[in-house]
């Protein structure tokens, strides 16, 4: 079970259409595939998506920190020493998606070594997750058309609407148009990526009062400490902390400060080892959890699925598992399939995925 090598492979796969939101936009999935090799010939994989506008990481930075610092940290340890890995990686500050990819590739390798699925190693709660699709900024008619396509083709009936534009009615009109088109047939929630002020957020939420939102997420910056608390006190749906809580300590701090009442777990930023801690904390505090999307490709989505299916609380709400559909291609031999609004657990050991060598050769940018 000894780890013998760690690879960090940059690759680039274009999007069919860009995803736009208040803190940035994505046109090409310029991610990093991390591979962990063991002395038994096992290879574990995971994906790190650089999000400079959220965590400050870049593709080159992820490759460098994995090759220069994390690989020497973990080579020679066994797959069972995941807490040692965590302690060593934590000597480096930041770099959440690089650390998480190393952690998740170790779990994948462990599952493959033990002949078990990662979901079963973690908690084995269910065999499927309901899917929520994230709608990026566009005109109301285009966003309604995308929701129609997602419903017809994949049976998806939960939508997270990106908001945070000015004037606020650009977004309020979209949410109203979606509700008018689909009535009670769909669930809707909004994510502001810190785009509005607390006052704008409060005004927008009042204007959407009759639209039956499930949640509101990161409408204004958590660093606007009193404004954020003031907002959360008056919003009558769970207020999800996403980019304000990249660590379990951040979750504790923001919830105790009254800055959030629910949490987004993104395996892309907390891997499996730290996502477990966030899950247990959220459960102890009685917080809703939504399995979030770091604009993941299919490797990252398989990881979100593996974790989300492991616990009752992570499987309760629809998970954000569909934005890989916006990509022109991916790296897996067996593409993920969303059927009737669900993504089912993948059969097989580890994460249940296999990298297509030809596709990796086509999309890697280091050779
Ligand atoms: C999300 O939930 O916010 C956009 C920015 C980011 O960090 O993640 C995505 C989706
Ligand atoms: Mg978010």
UniProtKB/TrEMBL annotation:
UniProt keyword list: Isomerase, Magnesium, Menaquinone biosynthesis, Metal-binding
Q: Name one GO molecular function term.
A: racemase and epimerase activity
Example of a GO biological process term:
menaquinone biosynthetic process
InterPro entries for the chain:
Enolase-like_C_sf (IPR036849), Enolase-like_N (IPR029017), Enolase_C-like (IPR029065), Mandelate_racemase_C (IPR013342), Mandelate_racemase_N_dom (IPR013341), Muconate_cycloisomerase_anti (IPR034613)
Q: Which cofactors does it use? A: Mg(2+)
Query: Which Pfam families does the entry link to?
Result: MR_MLE_C, MR_MLE_N
Positions of the Mandelate racemase/muconate lactonizing enzyme C-terminal domain: 140-238
Family assignment? Belongs to the mandelate racemase/muconate lactonizing enzyme family.
Q: State the name under which the record lists this protein.
A: Enolase
